[in-house]
Specification:
heterodimer, A: 575 residues, alpha/beta, 21-stranded mixed β-sheet, two-stranded parallel ribbon, B: 158 residues, 7-stranded mixed β-sheet, developmental protein (chain A), Transp_inhibit (chain A), Leucine-rich repeat cysteine-containing subtype (chain A), ubl conjugation pathway (chain A), F-box_dom (chain A)
């Protein structure tokens, strides 16, 4: 390869797009490192504190697309205080100063402000794509800047963010000359929407493929929008309540029939279930269906809808579907690859909506299943063993039994053997979440068999430090380990400090690690940021004479090449 | 701060005279930390089961809207016999009295809660379990937690 001129090598590199592969290429030799650097357009940064924007830009000056992730995963479940960090402004400022030709920015779990959005919108002439997932800190005013200033905006995709809705006119800030939109997702906005501005925007966006509306868009507006955009591929329905005899509903039915490109359906944030039949004509084309927010759709209406969706590859649903409903899915959706079943009843009032039977039925009926997230009331080892036999191709397996520490409900045994069967059979398993009654044994199995495991989530599991050690010693590809409410302590934490160099991060909350253990770790590994998050006892850790032995509430450590971060709030103590 | 935290009388951050005595509360807290189930402390903490806040809010069946520092809780109100309902922001009221006053004005009739009365309309609500209950029995902030919709019943029914 070194006999070819650089341009040829670069051209070859153009065909290599995955981050892993490009990282590997850059390690081959100096010459390849250099060529790869200058030709890299897309960069993925899994932890925004592992590196800083200046070093990023020094290495990749031709950057066009940046993905940044901020807070640790458990922030999704209120375990990380809002002010912890993950601010995007310094990144945008640095990118703006460097005049790099940024076109795409994807952020997850970061704090975004109106100021950063404004700066973003003004600094990059060719900016095309903004994707914000689980972010917070901004308002619709920030969206207005993006709309107004990004002349070539293609994607504005807001997924599950906390946005302060000022009920402003951000939609009308898109200039009349803006006709390039491909994706418009504002489903997470809670306030009212300017329907006229929305309809005009959709009407002048012939390339619009993905449109996800918020709950303030009623059914009659939906009908008009679909008439304007029959080319739609991905639709998020807002509020779906209406009288089935009304004129709007008739118009909607007619419009839907024309949407022959529709492949993905979501939303139904408020729904009149008997109006779902309007979608039956296009259901046979659907590959993705997300009804996880449609609390009002269940029973026979839901089943009828699913029976029409024979080509479904991805299904996100609430557990009100029941085991019987899952059996219908298993017999109808033979192409199913990804299933998520969310809890619909948070009180745990003994409502056995879905059980191990539903999971077994799905595993038996859907041979292509590779990703599952399943919330349920009960599970058995036997069921998990069967599932492992039926589906050895799992890449992601996340099981959440709602009651912590719940054993096999038939044998009263821990679920070690069941999960053991899963990790043994599923050789490609990359992500695993455990629940139920679990001893150190399950971790022995994981360490032994889960060779490809990159992310492991543990809650209320294990007996001793041995459990955590099995995982740290066995799972060579571990990247993210997150543990809560489990009896792992300093011995496990400190056993092999070099392990953390190969991992992105470790989270431990309500475990047995002590302050002195964390201090020792920080001393041994200066290339780690060891953060102690202590919201309730500000400074009590220092004052207490027995501070060393005091247990740490929340520990978050991650490798970094740029040392301690300067933006940590007072309740975060970086050792 | 989400509405449920501020409404819950067991929230650890509130100073409340109805809080249990120190020894009781420490026992309660330690129990809930080892076995989170549906104990009030755990509900106030909202970190189990591991689902996103947006889904959690949706499942509580509330139309919770956050605008700046205000929250709104819109519920549907129907008068028995009248097909078209109204929508009401319960957070705009300080308690049952102002709610009743407003409803009576909105529906142009006298509405009471609590005792049966052959002459007046009685206000009922659907709670998060799907049961229809008489309005007024529980503290206002608990009511806000559990109410899904309101129905004004006809006098003869009682």
């Amino acid at each position: 390869m070194n006999y070819f001129p650089d341009e040829v090598i670069e051209h070859v590199f153009d065909f290599v797009t995955s981050h892993k592969d490009r990282n590997a290429i850059s390690l081959v030799c100096k010459s390849w490192y250099k060529i790869e650097r200058y030709s890299r357009q897309k960069v993925f940064i899994g932890n925004c504190y592992a590196i800083n924007p200046e070093r990023l830009l020094r290495r990749f000056p031709c950057l066009k697309s940046l993905t940044l992730k901020g807070k640790p995963h458990f922030a999704d479940f209120n375990l990380v205080p809002h002010e912890w960090g993950g601010f995007v402004l310094p990144w945008i400022e640095a990118l703006a100063r460097s005049r790099v030709g940024l076109e795409e920015l994807r952020l997850k779990r970061m704090v975004v402000t109106d100021e950063s959005l404004e700066l973003l919108s003004r600094s990059f002439v060719n900016f095309k794509s903004l994707v914000l997932v689980s972010c917070e800190g901004f308002t619709t005013d920030g969206l207005a800047s993006i709309a107004a200033n990004c002349r070539h905006l293609r994607d504005l995709d807001l997924q599950e963010n906390e946005i302060d809705d000022h009920r402003g006119q951000w939609l009308s800030c898109f200039p009349d000359t803006c006709t390039t939109l491909v994706t418009l997702n504002f489903a997470c906005l809670e306030g009212e929407t300017n329907l006229v501005a929305l309809e005009r925007l959709v009407a002048r966006s012939p390339n619009l493929k993905s449109l996800k509306l918020n709950r303030a868009v009623p059914l009659d507006a939906l009908a008009r929008l679909m008439v304007c955009a029959p080319q739609i591929v991905d639709l998020g329905v807002g509020s779906y309540e209406n009288d089935p005899d009304s004129e709007s509903y008739m118009k909607l039915k007619a419009a839907i029939k024309k949407c022959t490109s529709l492949r993905s359906l979501s939303g139904f944030l408020e729904a009149a279930p008997h109006c779902l039949s309007a979608f039956h004509p296009i259901c046979h084309n659907l590959t993705s269906l997300n009804l996880s927010y449609a609390a009002e759709i269940h029973g026979s209406h839901l089943i009828k809808l699913i029976q029409h969706c024979k080509k479904l590859q991805r299904l996100w649903i609430l557990d009100s579907i029941g085991d019987k409903g899952l059996e219908v899915v298993a017999s109808t959706c033979k192409d199913l690859q990804e299933l998520r079943v969310f809890p619909s009843d948070l009180l745990g009032g003994g409502n056995t909506a879905v059980t191990e039977e539903g999971l077994v039925a799905i595993s038996a009926g859907c041979p292509k299943l590779h990703s599952i997230l399943y919330f349920c009331q009960q599970m058995t080892n036997a069921a998990l063993v069967t599932v492992a036999k039926n589906c050895p191709n799992f890449i992601r397996f996340r099981l959440c039994i709602l009651e912590p520490n719940k054993p096999d409900h038939v044998t009263s045994q821990p679920l070690d053997e069941g999960f053991g069967a899963i990790v043994k059979a599923c050789k490609s398993l990359r992500r695993l979440s455990l629940s139920g009654l679990l001893t150190d044994q399950v971790f022995l199995y994981i360490g032994m068999y889960a060779n490809q495991l990159e992310m492991l989530s543990i809650a209320f599991a294990g007996d001793t430090d041995k459990g955590m050690l099995y995982v740290l010693n066995g799972c060579k590809k571990m990247k993210k380990l997150e543990i809560r409410d489990s009896p792992f302590g300093d011995t496990a934490l400190l056993a092999d400090v070099s392990k953390y160099e190969t991992m992105r991060s470790l989270w431990m909350s309500s475990c047995e690690v002590t302050l002195s253990g964390c201090k020792r770790l920080a001393q041994k590994a200066p290339w780690l940021n060891v953060e102690i998050i202590n919201e309730n006892d500000n400074n009590r850790m220092e004052e207490n004479g027995h501070e060393g032995r005091q247990k740490v509430d929340k520990l978050y450590l991650y490798r970094t090449v740029v040392g301690t971060r300067m933006d940590a709030p007072p309740f975060v103590w970086i050792l | 701060m989400e509405v449920s935290n501020s409404c819950s009388s067991f929230s650890s951050s509130s100073v409340d005279s109805t809080k249990p005595s120190p020894s009781e509360s420490s026992v309660n807290l330690s129990l809930s930390l080892t076995f989170p189930s549906t104990s009030p402390q755990r509900e106030a903490k909202q970190d189990w089961p591991p689902i996103k806040s947006r889904l959690r809010d949706t499942l509580k069946g509330r139309r919770l809207i956050r605008r700046g520092n205000d929250t709104s809780l819109f519920v549907k109100v129907y008068m028995e016999g009248v097909p078209i309902g109204r929508k009401l922001d319960l957070c705009a009221f300080s308690g049952y009295e102002s709610l009743l006053e407003n409803l009576s004005h909105m529906f142009d009739t006298s509405i009471i809660c609590g005792n049966r009365d052959r002459k007046h309309h009685v206000l009922t609500y659907e709670d998060k379990d799907g049961d229809w209950m008489m309005v007024g029995d529980i503290p206002w902030d608990m009511f806000l937690e559990t109410v899904r919709r309101l129905k004004i019943t006809r006098p003869e029914r009682y």
